[in-house]
Write a structure and sequence with these properties.
This protein has three domains: about 1-225, 3-Layer(aba) Sandwich (Rossmann fold); about 235-320, N-(1-d-carboxylethyl)-l-norvaline Dehydrogenase, domain 2; about 320-455, NAD(P)-binding Rossmann-like Domain (Rossmann fold), CATH 3.40.50.720. It is about 45% helix and about 15% strand. It has 18 helices and 14 strands. It has helices at about 10-20, 35-40, 50-60, 70-75, 95-110, 130-150, 175-180, 190-205, 225-255, 260-270, 290-305, 310-320, 325-335, 360-370, 380-385, 400-405, 425-430, 445-450, and strands spanning about 1-5, 25-30, 65, 80, 115-120, 160-165, 185-190, 220-225, 340-345, 375, 395, 410, 435, 455. Strands 3-2-1-4-5-6 form a six-stranded parallel beta sheet, sandwiched between helices. A six-stranded parallel beta sheet has the order 11-10-9-12-13-14. The protein has a two-stranded parallel ribbon with strand order 7-8. β4 (about 80), α5 (about 95-110) and β5 (about 115-120) form a beta-alpha-beta unit. The structure holds uridine-5'-diphosphate-xylopyranose (2 copies).
Length: about 450
């Protein structure tokens, strides 16, 4: 099928590349020309395991193109994905101006070249499906008006399209894997024709042709109305964020009563009604989705006169959790002014270069405010030399240089390579051999054996 993906951020690029890999002809559109040039030269603008390899093979096969020309993308695609960002506004609502610009642009470029399915992949406020339809129609009208003025005749393009909501559930760091091994595919629309085309598009994924385990039953396809599909995305992320806040709250109680939250998580997670995933206590959830989506759902509820108390509590627990490492540092070192703190990891989770709403940013800000010197080593940020606009932190190129002269280390991101560091050597380089394991990730006994004082979260 002919697919156009508009917006090549984490979601758009992974979606475009994976759809071309499973056999579709994909054109990816982005209004950032520099990014487009980079992708045309075969390079991925983001770090995502497996993505570069697929990008290369799909480009070579001729099934994947990149352009900044929206008109060309709209012309070529029969299925048009809107995958631009919807960042949070200070009020908590999503900023939908990019979705609006793209929807208007699609409308302005619909030139009667056949039926199109317009797919909302971006996480948009509930009810946006109908709004997108309206904006596309506005775009069509504006163009018709302009062309009738120019030619002094009535333009006669009949827009022929339907809108589908198809939320994504990709985790950064395993987005390619998640695309080929989805738990479910959600399609929201009132158009049978559009749903049928979307099912055809995803058939190779539904039949597990590209899955790790091909013997599994087909991927469930959940077909709903537009608003329910949009709500599924918010409800899924809000549930997961609440689950983490729950275990973080249990961790804080464990700290006080002397229990170990990792054992508690194991004990409750084995109950199939609870499940063991997303029960890792730590210094809080971040990233481009959880904070934004939970706030947006709270905001939507408020708009409709409902006080979403549980989700507000999940957010508040998370805000408090972001200070847990600081509290532990103060307890250990007392005065932080003039102390040197080393952060192991900066990104909001491992296997990504994404710093959006990363807990590390709060920690850096809090430590700076208290007069501590902050250093950090992150496998991606240090290696790529990406500064990410970071201030108040010295970026070291390896973990030993980080440890040198530190009064304490804080593990912020659970990068696998942190399991294999030479902690014995690092302990000797530190002024005070203290480590706070903000993800309960390291082997406590091994660290204590090399002379480090180990403090986890809720253990
Ligand atoms: C995606 C979703 O679409 C968002 O709604 C979801 O909640 C998280 O994942 P993300 O992939 O993180 O967002 O977006 P981002 O990294 O901000 O990239 C968006 C891309 O769209 C950028 O490359 C930008 O240049 C491009 N863009 C933006 C356009 O091509 N046109 C525009 O008008 C605006
Ligand atoms: C999330 C959703 O999982 C995905 O389905 C959605 O569509 C996009 O948002 P992502 O933000 O990439 O994915 O990462 P995720 O693995 O969900 O982690 C989010 C945050 O929660 C990270 O900061 C992570 O460190 C934290 N986390 C996760 C915990 O603190 N404990 C856990 O048990 C799991």
């Amino acid at each position: 099928m002919r697919v156009c993906v508009i917006g090549t951020g984490y979601v758009g690029l992974v979606t475009g590349v994976c759809l071309s890999h499973i056999g579709h002809d994909v054109i990816c559109v982005d209004n950032n020309e520099e990014k487009v040039k980079l992708m045309q030269s075969g390079q991925s603008p983001i770090y995502e395991p497996g993505l570069s390899e697929l990008m290369k093979s799909s480009s070579e096969s001729g099934r994947l193109q990149f352009t900044s020309d929206l008109a060309k993308g709209v012309e070529q695609g029969e299925i048009l994905f809107i995958a631009v960002g919807t960042p949070p506004l200070p009020t908590g609502e999503s900023d939908t101006r990019y979705v609006e610009a793209v929807a208007r642009g699609i409308g302005a470029n619909l030139n009667g070249s056949g039926y199109k399915v317009i797919v909302n992949k971006s996480t948009v406020p509930i009810g946006s499906g109908d709004w997108v339809r309206m904006i596309v129609l506005d775009g069509v009208k504006e163009r018709q008006k302009a062309s009738s003025v120019a030619t002094n005749a009535e333009a006669t393009i009949e827009p022929n399209f339907d809108v589908v909501s198809n939320p994504e559930f990709l985790r950064e760091g395993s987005a390619v894997y998640d695309t080929f091994n989805p738990d479910r595919i959600v399609l929201g629309s009132n158009s049978e024709k559009a749903i049928a085309m979307m099912k055809e598009l995803y058939e190779p994924l539904v039949s597990r042709e590209f899955a790790e385990d091909k013997s599994l039953p087909p991927v469930p396809v959940v077909v709903t109305d537009l608003s329910s599909a949009e709500m599924i995305k918010y409800a899924a992320n809000s549930f997961l964020a609440t689950k983490i806040s729950f275990i973080n709250e249990i961790a804080n109680i464990c700290d006080r009563v002397g229990a170990d939250v990792t054992q508690v998580a194991k004990g409750i997670g084995l109950d199939s009604r609870i499940g063991s995933k997303f029960l890792n206590a730590g210094i809080g959830w971040g990233g481009s989705c959880f904070p934004k989506d939970v706030s947006a759902l709270i905001h939507t509820a408020d708009d409709y006169g409902y006080n979403a108390e549980l989700m507000k509590a999940a957010v508040n627990v998370n805000i408090r959790q972001r200070s847990i490492a600081l509290e532990k540092l103060q307890h250990e070192l007392k005065i932080l002014k003039g102390k040197t703190i080393g952060l192991l990891g900066l990104t909001f989770k491992p296997d990504t270069d994404d710093m959006r709403d990363a807990p590390a940013l709060n920690l850096i800000e809090q430590l700076n405010r208290l007069g501590a010197k902050v250093k950090a080593y992150d496998p991606i940020v240090s290696q790529s030399g990406l500064s990410h606009g970071l201030s108040g932190v010295i970026i070291e190129t390896n973990a030993e240089m980080l440890a040198d002269g530190c009064d304490a280390l804080v593990l912020v991101t659970d990068w696998k390579e942190f399991l294999k560091l030479d902690y014995s050597k690092m302990a000797k380089l530190m002024t005070h051999p203290v480590i706070i394991d903000g993800r309960n990730f390291l082997d406590r006994e091994a660290l204590e054996a090399v002379g480090l004082r180990y403090l986890g979260i809720g253990r």
